[in-house]
C-alpha cells in the first residue's frame, strides 16, 4: 500500500512530537519496514531540530509543512518551510571529528546524509524545499559462489 499525506507544523518541540505520532501511524498503515521508517523519521527529526534552533530567527510567522510518500521499499519526506536559506547538501563534516571531543554542530546533518539515499534541495518564493529519500537495500540476487 502506498500512503501520501502532509502535516503542517509550528516550529516547536511539541509539534515535532505531534509529527512523530502522525508519522508512526502513517508508517503502520502503509506497512513500512521498521528500519526504513526509522531512517526517514531520524532524518526528518534532525532537519526539524535544526530549523527550530536556527532557521526562524527574525521570521514573523514561521511554519513547516512535511509531505510524505511511503511504500514498501521507499520512504520520502519533503520538508517545506519559510525559514532562512539553508542547503544541508553542502555541509561538510570534518573527517577527524568525533562526538566526544568535537565542537557541537553538524553531527545531525552527518546522520541525515548517512541515512538518506538521496537529498534534493531548492529554494523559491522564500521557501526551503528539502526532499529526503530513504530506501531499503536491494535484496542480494547473486547466485552461489563457485
Main features:
146 residues; 26% strand; alpha+beta; 5-stranded antiparallel beta sheet; 34% helix
How would you describe the overall organization of this protein?
The protein is α+β, with helices and mostly antiparallel strands and 146 residues long. The chain has one domain (3-135): Histidine kinase-like ATPase, C-terminal domain (Heat Shock Protein 90, 2-Layer Sandwich), CATH 3.30.565. It contains 3 helices and 5 strands. A hairpin with a 2-residue loop joins β4 and β5 (127-135). α1 packs antiparallel against α2 (34-55) and α2 (34-55) packs antiparallel against α3. The longest helix is centred in the first third of the chain and has 22 residues, at 34-55. The model has no long low-confidence stretch (mean pLDDT 87).
How are the elements arranged and paired?
Elements: E1 3-9, H1 13-30, H2 34-55, E2 64-70, E3 74-81, H3 107-115, E4 118-124, E5 127-135
Antiparallel strand pairs: 1-2, 2-3, 3-5, 4-5
Shape: globular
Query: Mean pLDDT, as a whole number?
Result: 87
Strand content: 25-35%
- Termini separation: 39 Å
Residues in helix, %:
25-40%
Supply the CATH superfamily name: Histidine kinase-like ATPase, C-terminal domain
Instruction: Count all strands and give the number.
Output: 5
In order across it, which strands form the biggest sheet?
A: 1-2-3-5-4
Helix-strand string: EHHEEHEE
Low-confidence stretches: none
Quickly give the CATH architecture: 2-Layer Sandwich
Overall tally of domains: 1
Total DSSP helices: 3
Category from helices, strands and their pairing? alpha+beta
CATH class (first level) name: Alpha Beta
> Which fold name corresponds to the CATH topology?
Heat Shock Protein 90
Q: Rg, please?
A: 17 Å
Largest sheet: 5 strands, antiparallel
Query: What kind of oligomer do you see?
Result: single chain
Amino acid at each position: 500500500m502506498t500512503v501520501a499525506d502532509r502535516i503542517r507544523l509550528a516550529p516547536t518541540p511539541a509539534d515535532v512530537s505531534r509529527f512523530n505520532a502522525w508519522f508512526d501511524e502513517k508508517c503502520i498503515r502503509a506497512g513500512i519496514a521498521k528500519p526504513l521508517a526509522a531512517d526517514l523519521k531520524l532524518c526528518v527529526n534532525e532537519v526539524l531540530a535544526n530549523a527550530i534552533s536556527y532557521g526562524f530567527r527574525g521570521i514573523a510567522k514561521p511554519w513547516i509543512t512535511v509531505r510524505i510518500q511511503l511504500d514498501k521499499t521507499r520512504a520520502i519526506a519533503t520538508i517545506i518551510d519559510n525559514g532562512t536559506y539553508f542547503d544541508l547538501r553542502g555541509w561538510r563534516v570534518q573527517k577527524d571529528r568525533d562526538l566526544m571531543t568535537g565542537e557541537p554542530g553538524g553531527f545531525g546533518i552527518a546522520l541525515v546524509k548517512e541515512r538518506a539515499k538521496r537529498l534534493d534541495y531548492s529554494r523559491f518564493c522564500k521557501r526551503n524545499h528539502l526532499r529526503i529519500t530513504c530506501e531499503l537495500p536491494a535484496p542480494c540476487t547473486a547466485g552461489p559462489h563457485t
